[in-house]
Amino acid sequence: MNAIAMTEVVDATPDVKLRITEIFASLQGESTRVGLPTVFVRLTGCPLRCTWCDTAYAFQGGETRTLDAVLAEVADHGLHCVCVTGGEPLAQKSCLPLLTALCDAGYSVSLETSGALDVGAVDPRVSRIMDLKAPGSGEVGRNRYENIALLNAHDEVKIVLADEADYVWAKQQIAEFELARRCTVLLSPVAGALDPATLAEWIVRDRLPVRFQLQLHKILWSDARGR
Questions:
Q1: Is 130 in contact with 155 (CB distance < 8 Å)?
Q2: Which residues of 99-117 are buried (b: 16+ CB within 10 A; e: fewer)?
Q3: Residue 169 CB: number of other CB atoms within 10 A?
Q4: Structural domain count, the chain
Q5: CATH number, domain containing residue 24
Q6: pTM of the full predicted structure?
Q7: The pLDDT of residue 168
């Protein structure tokens, strides 16, 4: 990585601190980056409580780290791709300087966000992987639809579906907001709730302009943390 750029960023923001649940290297399990070796920076805290959430352990706890320390640990893993996730990473104001610092250091950076908070201030070099919460999540009312107009071809929208009602809702959102014209749209089944083959058949039947996805990390490592 660009050590000079990283040093400049750290010196410019010596007081930035973040609450970190974990930092680890694994394969990216979702999005169009699936399968890429990636460093994950999981920030602590989330204002949402989705019924199917699989990272509730990141709601509380964590360790306060300086931006300098986070960048150093990311660099130690020696990978080009970095994913900042949570919880809801944008719930911490220091997420924004973290994203910029990672981009300045030469990483290919993605952000996994719930879509409930404003994504407009995110560094434009970051690929924003933004959820739209379907009714089955229990948090459909938290969707910030103003975010959709901010998305571009560099970004992605992810919709996790628990049942057929969620699928019908997702089709409506895709059509109403012309999501597929704006960016890649990802549809995922809730593990144990919606049969993946059934979702795949619906997508093909309806000729939806989306990408079907499963969580690769769960296929490989079940629900193990830090993988």
A1: yes
A2: bbbbbbbebbbbbbbbbbb
A3: 18
A4: 1
A5: 3.20.20.70
A6: 0.90
A7: 98
Q: Does residue 227 belong to any structural domain of this protein?
A: no
User: pLDDT by residue (tens digit) across 106-130?
Assistant: 999 999 999 999 999 999 999 999 9
Contact 87, 55 (CB under 8 A): yes
Q: Is residue 22 part of a domain?
A: yes
Half-sphere exposure of 58 (CA within 13 A, CB side): 27
Token pair, residue 10, equals 């750290």
Which residues make beta-bridge pairs with 19? 64
Closest CA to 139 of 169, 176, 164, 119: 169
What's the chain's average pLDDT?
A: 92
* Domain ranges, residue 170: 3-221
Q: Is residue 190 domain-resident?
A: yes
Predicted confidence (pLDDT) at residue 10 exceeds the cutoff of 50: no
Average pLDDT in the 210-215 region?
A: 95
User: Are 87 and 58 a contacting pair, CB within 8 Å?
Assistant: yes
pLDDT at 156 over 50: yes
In a domain, 153, yes or no: yes
Give the separation between CA 107 and CA 105, rounded to whole angstroms.
6
